[in-house]
Write a structure and sequence with these properties.
It is a single chain. The chain starts with a strand and ends in an 18-residue tail after the last helix. The chain has one domain: Hypothetical protein, domain 2 (Endonuclease III, domain 1, Orthogonal Bundle). Strands 1-2 form a two-stranded antiparallel sheet. By secondary structure, it is mainly α. The chain has 9 helices and 2 strands.
Length: 192
Amino acid sequence: MGPVIGEDDVARCPWAGGPGVMRDYHDTEWGERVHGESAYFERLTLEAFQSGLSWATILTKRPAFREVFHDFDADAIAAFDEGDVERLMQEPRIVRNRLKIEATLTNARATVALRDAEGLEDFVLSFAPDEPTQWHDTSEMVSISPESVALSKALKKRGFAFVGPTTMYALMQALGLFDPHLVGCFRHGAHA
């Protein structure tokens, strides 16, 4: 399926065809570069929490995630302990998955440790693909790439969890490491 025309006469990727939180995310964030450790850590965390769930669910819960995870300040989260995990397991406004919550703490600690090298942002950016995407139809799209496999392996080596190749591919899309929009979508080429 190619881009769809919404009721507002704008061509978009099919998953963002109707009004709502998904369209808003598509139109303003998806595929846009962000900067700073907390912005990268937030996307990494939310992609991990999304695994097995709808992205709309994560976007709806995003304000609560930001609140309970201190705006994704890695230092603050790295200091969390088992009591914090239990508190988060009782928080109905977020996804209450113990493994994902514990992975967030693990990843915060790994993010802090990564500062001694290049830092999370530069580390992730170093895996950006060289070739631009030119997808015309969703059937051409993939959910994994050599770069996402390499990023996944490299992050795991650095102590990160819940960073499988498919999740890292979604992260790369979200962060604009390549243009994830279909040719014909009004956002295609917008961040280049």
